[in-house]
Specification:
CATH topology of the largest domain: Four Helix Bundle (Hemerythrin (Met), subunit A)
Largest sheet: none
Helix content: 55-70%
Structural class: mainly alpha
Bound molecules: zinc ion
Shape: globular
Radius of gyration: 19 Å
Order of helices and strands: HHHHHHHH
CATH architecture of the largest domain: Up-down Bundle
């Protein structure tokens, strides 16, 4: 397949997945079932939406962010989730092509994205999602051979250990959900990419918090959710990790070579 076709396909898939995970996050927080239930409808007027209202990003742009039936504004989180999903799918397909690294990369990025949504909305990480990520990690590491699987377990251990240490030292700020998530992510990424993700996540979180503190939008005591920054760190690692590590003369390990 032509590489532009691959990128286009995963951009579209990513937008749909972003839209779906936004619903999953919302339903997890609300405690309702992920599948089935009511069909997509406008929260204001209750009209059941049709396919032409549900094309990711395109419908929102065409309708200028308003419901076709009652004209009320569509919450920005819907289109934001679609845009982030489209960018994630497209960029990862551009970076990895149809290689064995693409699917673990997508699993890590979209897993982190889903947990970032529930963390933003509720300040909570649902254990089931990191667990699913860990299973993805094991599944993707069984075939390449023993060293790869060990790398995954070391990644899970490293992620969990770093966050646990911070929890024990700082007493608050981060929760055990963050440690579970770092473990699930680590199983997919392996230990080198995991440490790089944590490092880039903490750096981006620090820069962002400092900017907010300086602008007076944040007080020193306010808790800043960690997972959105882990998602940013994970994305940066999945895109630039091999280059950063080769700069340090480190082999990223399978499947990231
Ligand atoms: Zn409406």
């Amino acid at each position: 397949m032509d590489s532009w076709c691959v990128i286009f396909f995963f951009t579209f898939l990513g937008a749909s997945l972003g839209s779906f995970l936004n619903v999953v996050a919302g339903r997890s927080v609300a405690g309702t079932s992920w599948w089935g239930g009511s069909r997509s409808h406008c929260p204001k007027c209750g009209t059941v939406l049709r396919w032409k209202d549900l094309v990711p990003i395109v419908s929102w742009m065409f309708l200028r962010g308003r419901c076709r039936y009652c004209g009320s504004r569509i919450a920005v989180r819907y289109v934001a989730a679609e845009v982030w999903g489209a960018a994630t799918g497209g960029l990862l397909a551009w970076r990895w092509g149809l290689s064995p690294a693409l699917f673990p990369a997508l699993a890590a990025a979209f897993g982190l994205f889903l947990n970032a949504l529930t963390d933003l909305e509720e300040g909570y990480v649902f254990d089931i999602f990191p667990l699913a990520m860990g299973i993805c990690g094991i599944a993707s590491r069984v075939l390449p051979g023993g060293g790869s699987l060990l790398d995954g377990f070391l990644g899970a251990l490293a992620g969990c250990a770093v966050i646990s240490l911070i929890i024990l030292l700082s007493r608050g700020g981060m929760g055990w959900g963050d440690a579970t998530l770092a473990a699930g992510t680590g199983m997919i990424l392996g230990w080198k990419f995991t440490l790089l993700t944590l490092y880039l996540g903490f750096m981006s979180g620090g820069v962002f918090s400092l900017a907010l503190l300086t602008a007076g939008k944040l007080r020193r005591k306010d808790a800043v959710p960690l997972v959105p920054f882990l998602a940013v760190g994970g994305m940066l690692t999945l895109l630039f990790g091999p280059r950063i590590l080769s700069f340090l003369n480190i082999d990223p390990g399978l499947p990231w070579r």
